[in-house]
Amino acid sequence: xxxxxxxxxxxxxxxxxxxxxxxxxxxxxxxxxxxxxxxxxxxxxxxxxxxxxxxxxxxxxxxxxxxxxxxxxxxxxxxxxxxxxxxxxxxxxxxxxxxxxxxxxxxxxxxxxxxxxxxxxxxxxxxxxxxxxxxxxxxxxxxxxxxxxxxxxxxxxxxxxxxxxxxxxxxxxxxxxxxxxxxxxxxx
Length: 188
Fold this sequence. Notes:
Blueprint: H1 4-9, H2 11-20, H3 27-31, E1 64-69, E2 75-80, E3 85-89, E4 95-99, E5 106-111, E6 118-122, E7 131-133, E8 139-142, E9 145-149, E10 156-162, E11 165-170, E12 175-179
Antiparallel strand pairs: 1-2, 2-3, 3-4, 5-6, 7-8, 8-9, 10-11, 11-12
């Protein structure tokens, strides 16, 4: 908690502020309306209900192109056009780490199922998996071999990769999933 010391040192001020800055129709305001301090003449204009927004995380210098929660819901990863990936603590909103190394926009981030590893895909044609979308956004490639040509309506704006499964978000609002399997010819 970022403001823990202020709350511990001045609990009555925190209590009064909670009343003054709570929405007009909130339970806190309705239960303790008669406890509001009378000496404060100008009170802030407040909304009627609580906002659905829990936090605003700031730190990227350009558009955020992908976000993903860890499977244990304790961290959030964000990838940006600025070429960085940031890992955030969900409860506090603190930036835990900034990962650099991509030479182009980061277009996809994904946590492993045990929440211990993070993969990021980039327009520089690098990804932590062996399966990637090519930088020209037209082919799905594997080991530098073109496997599948993507028609314009399926070209990605973002993607995720899990083993041989690919999820592709497109510019026309569709999400496309496919499984890539390689058939090897046995010549013996």
